[in-house]
Design goal:
This protein is mainly β and about 240 residues long. It has four helices and twelve strands; from the N terminus they run H-H-E-E-E-E-E-E-H-E-E-E-E-E-E-H. A hairpin with a 5-residue loop joins strand 1 (about 35-45) and strand 2. The two termini are about 20 Å apart.
């Protein structure tokens, strides 16, 4: 139970920040320390054939307890499994938003996020969604053996979206058991296009640096937006 709490803590918190698909935390108390680059590409094709392509590049660090640090040019997100906190650093304004995650609650109640965030996005849109899983077998990515699983979720016609025909979304996850990391995730969503997340330049020889998981000197603590808590608990 405690293992799954650590897992859902991270997943719920990162979903509230809009970056859950990028992390793919393993449900384990101890994991492989590493660093990697993350490349996320979203491609959407408009009805007229025009293509929209957006790319995000990030730096990723993970320590042995599963805590993570994700670096983008305009922000840094630190998830501390021991402290049960999510910290968002703004390098431009030198501010830090430190927030206790929903799973750190001491009232003994499991937040909605612990269940809801493990479902495919869209399940809260109404209707009886139909889900299925497919084993994709094993292949090699970047020299590591990975096992693939695809989950398909279908929103039936005449749902709260107003769709006249079913909408099917698929998520492929190719996970390395050695690294305890999903090296490739592909999301095909008719509403949002195709999003591909890749972990590249993975290094397990990165020295553990505790300063990566703390607020740097000179940063000012500011309140975290309330919407982040709401998103973590209701998405």
């Amino acid at each position: 139970m405690h293992v799954m709490k650590r897992f859902t803590l991270t997943l719920a918190a990162l979903t509230g920040l809009g970056i859950a698909p990028l992390i793919g935390q393993t449900p384990s108390l101890r994991t492989v320390p590493l660093s990697a680059d993350i490349d996320v590409v979203n491609v959407r094709t408009l009805p007229d054939g025009n293509t929209l392509r957006q790319e995000r590049k990030m730096k990723f660090y993970r320590r042995a307890d599963g805590s993570t640090r994700l670096e983008e040019p305009n922000r840094v997100v630190i998830v501390d499994n021991d402290a049960h906190t999510v910290t968002v650093l703004d390098p431009m304004s030198k501010t830090a938003q430190v927030q206790a995650t929903p799973m750190a609650s001491t009232n003994g109640r499991k937040p909605v996020a612990a269940q809801a965030q493990l479902q495919v996005a869209g399940s809260s849109l109404g209707g009886s969604n139909i889900s299925s899983k497919t084993d994709l077998g094993v292949k090699v990515i970047a020299g590591y053996s990975v096992h693939g699983v695809q989950q398909s979720t279908t929103i039936p016609a005449n749902s709260a979206l107003g769709n006249t025909a079913p909408i099917t979304k698929t998520i492929q996850v190719w996970r390395s058991s050695d690294l305890q990391l999903p090296l490739l995730t592909v999301i095909n969503d008719p509403l949002g296009g195709t999003t591909t997340s890749r972990y590249e330049n993975v290094s397990t020889s990165t020295q553990s640096d505790s300063s990566r998981f703390t607020v740097p000197a000179g940063y000012k603590a500011v309140p975290a937006p309330q919407s982040r808590v709401i998103a973590s608990q209701t998405n």
